[in-house]
């Protein structure tokens, strides 16, 4: 058996060697990708990628990959060469790194795909043409076995001789190639491409806008989605578009390209080729217009998206002067889009009676429109047709009214008008009818999406605090934005928890995933952290208890959390981080820094986990900012770069208006993930409390000692008017603690302005019960009634392992 296994292993390695010899031949096209594909075949990898060092030596950039989507495993477009990532470690040390689920969980910095399902391998790849790493992911339960590792070593060697080095400059280009800098729009273009656009090379100004200006306007949206970096992820791009010709129909061109990240300080570049595709495509037809409209409506999520897609698909091809789209809501027509949007482009009656006649008008106010909706088919009126004033001036040269049917009823109407006399051909009528049916169905879907999205947002908000408490010596604001991608509940949350002695706990967290389970777990974690904090535990114990609770829930989800306990009297804070982003501090002078806070693993990953506390020092005017990764991380943006951008935006904000600061920070949020943001400005307390405490020993004279301590303290504070009432409250509270509990007892006195707080802490969790009635023969039970009578307010709060009974007395000073 051992001999057969050895032979099998040699055979697999030999097959991998033979395959790599073939795909790395100089004449082999796409040889780097084909090399990576061997990792999927011979090393049981689910994903393989190559990162190479950019010319500036600062960043390891993703240049090629194959297999499952990399975002499934939380892999980035680039890593700092001097950072602590596995890619940087392997590149710096020159030794492979093999990481299992536990290793990946300990490295987790934000919510990513669950590390329970995959193993990560990073092997250095240095050779003649490359200086980087091979990265591979295995979803096998046992990870990469010895045979897999041997094959990956062969593939890493082949990668080192096949991978290109990312270049910050495009260099010399073939005649059919281009290279576009995504940040500036400067483009280098081969002579053949300029010839296709009809541009003389000496007259080209190097701006991508010059090329875009020669394209057919209908094709601009799809082309702009390629040349705008904000809407792209690293990868291949291919599309066809048309360019205008001096004479004759437009010419079809085909673009193939790849967006590659630049090095540190260098822009990403879109590089590729453009070829003539005219012989493969005919001129645009009404069928093609309908197909394009259907494609646009398929991705339109909201009612406004649908309206804009209809306008883009119809106004230019029909050479219309104006177009309006309106929804039908309870026998009223409500306009969602007017194009052009300027009021002067529409009838005077609309402008003078904007809220009664149009765009929010009862259908019965426009008989012509009402008749068209009843019949349910497109209606066309040529120039000079007798129409009511509200419609006649929309299209003096011709008017088309398209009812938008959906699900057996009318979803709305589309009005298209011309100023000069317009001839309606049969093809145009067919286009209008087909477009109306598509738009009606899309409006119904968009209504359902809007309603469900609003419901999701409402449910999410119900799990978050309704309002934040007022803080002595500080102010807090929070914001939450649900994701616009999909209709699932998110797991982001925040909380502000008032604590005794003018402390406050700032909490922000993120449960893995988007689902009802994630939202439910979020509510449980928020409640648990609030309960543990109210018990008086220090921050590390609060987070440890929450971690233990999550482990006991036996869920497959984990959560990240940042917990900051702020002492509003002293201006100090302790921070605990469980796999979450650190706080960002904005100091009074405007400088910002990302707090250097030690971190523990995410909650729910390890039972015996440590969550160290890190101190923060606050000056009056300091702003503490806590956020979730949805604000600082995306497919296009590295989380470290996102945090730096977040700190820069915070530095430019005015902390005097916290609400405006929060809105500004969320202004650039990418809505592919939900976002939570919590800000607190520490102002310092104008009147700091005076405090004293006393340990009550269990001796016969214990109550007398407590009374003498209280009398000395009040005299030292200059108080003497209500001293008898205070001494009575102290006597009753101390007596109750000594009689009804065991263990240590401690007395606390706190003076804030003219309000005195007396508190007695003991080790029993049982709260005192006020008797409903007391007979003359009763020997006890009157103490709590006396405390209630002498106090402005009183109560009991849990503390770590026991309780604290307190009374507040208003003094006449």
List keywords for this structure.
813 residues; alpha+beta; 6-stranded antiparallel beta sheet; 22 helices; globular; disordered N terminus; hydrolase; PPM-type_phosphatase-like_dom
Instruction: Give the beta-strand count.
Output: 33
Unreliable spans: 1-9, 109-115, 165-171, 229-233, 280-284, 353-357
What is the spatial order of strands in the main beta sheet? 3-2-1-6-5-4
Distance between the termini: 95 Å
Q: Mean of residue pLDDT?
A: 79
Overall structural class, as computed from helix and strand content, comes to alpha+beta
Strand content: 25-35%
Helix content: 25-40%
Gyration radius from CA atoms, angstroms:
35 Å
**In terms of quaternary structure, what is this?**
single chain
Largest sheet: 6 strands, antiparallel
Number of helices: 22
Shape: globular
Overview of the structural elements:
Pfam families: GAF_2, HATPase_c_2, PAS_3, SpoIIE. InterPro entries: Bact_Sigma-Reg, GAF, GAF-like_dom_sf, HATPase_C_sf, HATPase_dom, PAS, PAS-like_dom_sf, PAS_fold_3. Keywords: Hydrolase. This protein is 33% helix and 27% strand. The chain has 22 helices and 33 strands. The protein has 813 residues and is of the alpha+beta class. Strand 1 (47-53) and strand 2 (59-67) form a beta hairpin. 37% of the residues are buried. The longest helix has 37 residues, at 426-462.
């Amino acid at each position: 058996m051992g001999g057969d296994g050895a032979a099998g292993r040699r055979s697999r390695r030999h097959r991998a060697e033979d395959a790599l010899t073939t795909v790395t031949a100089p004449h082999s096209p796409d040889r780097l990708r084909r090399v990576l594909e061997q990792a999927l075949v011979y090393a049981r990898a689910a994903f393989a990628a190559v990162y190479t060092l950019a010319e500036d030596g600062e960043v390891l950039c993703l240049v090629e990959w194959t297999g499952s989507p990399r975002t499934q495993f939380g892999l980035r477009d680039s890593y700092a060469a001097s950072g602590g990532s596995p890619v940087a470690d392997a590149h710096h040390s020159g030794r492979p790194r093999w990481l299992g689920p536990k290793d990946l969980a300990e490295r987790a910095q934000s919510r990513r795909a669950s590390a329970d399902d995959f193993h990560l391998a990073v092997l250095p790849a240095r050779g003649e043409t490359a200086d980087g790493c091979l990265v591979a992911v295995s979803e096998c339960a046992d990870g990469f076995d010895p045979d897999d590792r041997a094959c990956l070593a062969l593939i890493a060697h082949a990668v080192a001789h096949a991978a290109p080095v990312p270049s910050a400059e495009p260099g010399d280009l073939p005649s059919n190639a281009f290279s576009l800098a995504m940040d500036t729009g400067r483009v280098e273009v081969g002579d053949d491409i300029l010839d296709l656009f009809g541009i003389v090379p000496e007259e080209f100004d190097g701006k991508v806008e010059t090329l875009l200006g020669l394209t057919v306007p209908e094709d601009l949206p799809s082309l702009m989605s390629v040349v705008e970096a904000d809407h792209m992820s690293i990868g291949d791009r291919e599309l066809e578009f048309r360019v205008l010709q001096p004479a004759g129909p437009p010419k079809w061109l085909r673009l193939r390209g790849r967006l590659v990240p630049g090095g540190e300080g260098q822009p990403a570049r879109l590089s590729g080729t453009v070829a003539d595709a005219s012989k493969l495509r005919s001129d645009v037809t009404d069928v093609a217009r309908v197909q394009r409209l259907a494609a646009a409506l398929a991705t339109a999520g909201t009612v406004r998206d649908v309206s804009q897609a209809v306008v883009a698909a119809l106004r230019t091809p029909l050479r219309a002067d104006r177009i309006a789209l309106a929804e039908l809501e309870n026998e009223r027509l409500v306009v969602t889009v007017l194009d052009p949007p300027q009021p002067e482009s529409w009838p005077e009656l609309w402008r003078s009676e904007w809220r009664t006649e149009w765009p929010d008008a009862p259908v019965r106010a426009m008989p012509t429109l009402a008749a068209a909706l009843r019949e349910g088919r497109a209606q066309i009126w040529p120039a000079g047709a007798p129409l009511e004033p509200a419609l006649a001036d929309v299209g003096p040269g011709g008017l088309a009214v398209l009812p938008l049917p959906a699900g057996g009823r009318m979803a709305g109407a589309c009005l298209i008008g011309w100023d000069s006399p317009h001839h309606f051909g049969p093809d145009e009528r067919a286009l209008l009818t087909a477009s109306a049916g598509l738009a009606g169905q899309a409006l119904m879907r968009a209504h359902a999406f809007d309603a469900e999205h609003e419901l999701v947002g409402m449910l999410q908000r119900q799990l978050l605090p309704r309002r934040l408490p007022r803080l002595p010596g500080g102010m807090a604001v929070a914001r939450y934005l649900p994701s616009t991608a999909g209709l699932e509940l998110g797991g982001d949350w925040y909380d502000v928890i008032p604590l005794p002695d003018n402390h406050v706990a700032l909490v922000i967290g993120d449960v893995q995933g988007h689902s009802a389970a994630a939202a439910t777990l979020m509510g449980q974690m928020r409640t648990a952290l609030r309960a543990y904090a109210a018990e008086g535990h220090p921050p590390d114990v609060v987070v440890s208890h929450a971690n233990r609770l999550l482990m006991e829930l036996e869920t497959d989800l984990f959560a990240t959390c940042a917990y900051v306990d702020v002492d509003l009297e002293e201006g100090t804070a302790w921070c605990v981080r469980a796999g979450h982003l650190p706080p960002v501090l904005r100091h009074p002078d405007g400088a910002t820094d990302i707090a250097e806070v030690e971190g523990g693993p995410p909650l729910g990953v390890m039972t015996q986990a440590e969550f160290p506390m890190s101190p923060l020092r606050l000056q009056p005017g300091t702003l503490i900012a806590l956020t979730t990764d949805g604000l600082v991380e995306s497919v296009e943006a590295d989380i470290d770069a996102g945090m730096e951008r977040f700190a820069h935006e915070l530095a430019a904000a005015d902390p005097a208006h916290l609400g405006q600061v929060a809105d500004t920070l969320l202004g650039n949020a990418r809505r592919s993930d939900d976002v939570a943001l919590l800000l607190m400005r520490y102002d310092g307390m104008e009147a700091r409390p005076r405090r004293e405490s006393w340990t009550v020993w269990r001796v016969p004279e214990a109550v007398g000692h407590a009374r003498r301590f209280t009398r000395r303290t009040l005299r030292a504070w200059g108080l003497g008017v209500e001293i008898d009432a205070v001494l009575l409250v102290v006597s009753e509270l101390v007596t109750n603690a000594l009689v009804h509990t065991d263990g240590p007892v401690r007395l606390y006195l706190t003076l804030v302005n003219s309000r005195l707080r007396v508190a007695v802490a003991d080790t029993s969790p049982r709260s005192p019960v006020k008797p409903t009635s007391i007979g003359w023969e009763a020997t006890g039970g009157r103490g709590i009634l006396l405390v209630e009578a002498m106090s402005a307010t009183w109560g009991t709060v849990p503390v770590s392992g026991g309780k604290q009974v307190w009374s507040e007395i208003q003094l006449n000073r």
